[in-house]
Amino acid sequence: MHEMGIATEISRIVLDEAERGGGGRVNSISLTIGRWSGVEIETLRFAMEVVAEETGLDGVELKIEVVEPTFKCSDCGREFIAESRLTPCPSCGSMAGDMVAGDELAIKEIEVEE
Ligand SMILES: [Zn+2]
Asked: Distance, CA 88 to ligand 1 centroid (Å)?
């Protein structure tokens, strides 16, 4: 379960940020997670709860925004959501596309009590 390692890393970054912002209590954490990031969202939620309790982040609200796999067609430039890497461009049918979103794992926002 590599989600436990990810949760530990997230809480470390969050606590660092909170510290730098004056050391207030963290109210919520917003994460952006790509559908294809390889992270099990339910598992990560559970891992975050466990880690939060150990690190003093207990009670923190975890907001997760799931990003669908998005490709940009190299031929016509259209961006589209793909079911798989073999999904052709809906405009021109080209199979040549670059993934532009959907495999990220990022902390979007941290809300700290003033
Ligand atoms: Zn296209």
From this structure: 8
